[in-house]
């Protein structure tokens, strides 16, 4: 999504914006985009000065709707490639988890069932992501 700039309460549209026609002085500029935290900055403008503004907005946590069959399975959620740091979530499923946007490895497991592992890209934005696992039943007995 586009980052929208608002200067002194007036929308200036998506970045990049040129501030060359702002009168000299200090101006309050607000930057916002869906799924990101709003950022406010004060910018001092001098006569005839070109200002190039670069902002990086922090993404808000994203909701992930996780559905797992069987509902009493466990899910291990870790940032991709970092299974040791994973968080373990018990059922019952479905549940809503809140995560920062990024790439994650989901591992779903349950005694008596096969284990599934999937890499999922969670995009920033206001929309919830849905992840579904159906564990295969183990048909062998030890």
Low-confidence stretches: none
Strand content: over 45%
Q: How is the biggest beta sheet arranged?
A: 4 strands, antiparallel
Distance between the termini: 52 Å
Overall, the morphology is: rod-shaped
What class, by secondary structure content? mainly beta
Tally of distinct domains:
2
Give the CATH topology of the largest domain. Answer: Immunoglobulin-like
Mean pLDDT level: 88
Please, could you describe this protein's structure?
By secondary structure, this protein is an all-beta fold. The protein has strands at 4-7, 10-14, 25-32, 39-45, 62-69, 74-79, 87-89, 95-99, 102-109, 116-122, 129-134. It is built from no helices and eleven strands. A four-stranded antiparallel sheet has the order 2-1-3-4, with no helix packed on it. Strands 7-6-9-10 form a four-stranded antiparallel sheet, with no helix packed on it. It has a three-stranded mixed sheet with strand order 8-5-11, with no helix packed on it. The relative contact order is 0.18.
SSE order and pairing:
Elements: E1 4-7, E2 10-14, E3 25-32, E4 39-45, E5 62-69, E6 74-79, E7 87-89, E8 95-99, E9 102-109, E10 116-122, E11 129-134
Parallel strand pairs: 5-11
Antiparallel strand pairs: 1-2, 1-3, 3-4, 5-8, 6-7, 6-9, 9-10
Notable traits:
142 residues, mainly beta, Immunoglobulin-like, 2 domains, 4-stranded antiparallel β-sheet, rod-shaped
Write a compact overview of the structure shown:
It contains no helices and 11 strands.
């Amino acid at each position: 999504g586009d980052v929208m700039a608002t200067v002194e309460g007036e929308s200036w549209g998506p970045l990049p914006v040129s501030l060359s026609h702002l009168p000299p002085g200090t101006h309050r500029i607000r930057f916002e985009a869906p799924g990101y935290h709003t950022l406010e900055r004060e910018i001092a403008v001098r006569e005839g000065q070109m200002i190039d503004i670069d902002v990086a907005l922090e993404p808000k946590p994203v909701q992930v709707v996780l559905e797992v069959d069987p509902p009493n399975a466990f899910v291990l959620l870790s940032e991709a490639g970092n299974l040791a740091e994973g968080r373990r979530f018990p059922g019952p499923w479905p549940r809503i988890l809140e995560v920062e946007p990024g790439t994650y490895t989901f591992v779903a497991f349950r005694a008596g069932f096969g284990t599934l592992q999937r890499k999922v890209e969670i995009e920033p934005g206001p929309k919830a992501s849905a992840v579904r696992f159906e564990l295969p039943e183990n048909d062998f007995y030890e």
